[in-house]
Amino acid sequence: MAAARALPWPDFEDATLEPTDNLTFMRPMKSGSMKLIVTSPPYNIGKSYEQRTPLKEYVRQQTEVISECVRVLHPRGSLCWQVGNHVDNGEITPLVPI
To answer: Is there a contact between 64 and 23 (Cβ–Cβ < 8 Å)?
Structure first.
């Protein structure tokens, strides 16, 4: 994978796209600094672009990410989190809020 670099957003001087790991991106941020977070974590269902992990590990990883999102979220900000179901051997497990 190529090294990550910030890409300026065409219409806004104060916005960037950062193609990097979400925790790597958020950890240096000041708490309460984000007014909008939109994320769609991997579904962990075996897509070609994701590495499948056991449900317990997947939930642990997502708990870490959502906790960091909450930390950087402004008190009057919004967090949009899209998540699906866990599927294993045809068994579907809804992912309850973490």
So the answer is: yes
Instruction: Report the predicted TM-score, pTM, of the whole model to 2 decimal places.
Output: 0.71
46 backbone φψ class: left, alpha, beta (φ>0; ψ -120 to 50): left
Per-residue pLDDT of the chain (98 residues; tens, 9 = 90+): 455 566 555 566 666 667 788 899 999 999 999 999 988 887 787 778 888 888 888 889 888 999 999 999 999 999 998 877 777 777 877 776 54
Residue 34 to residue 27: CA distance in whole angstroms: 12
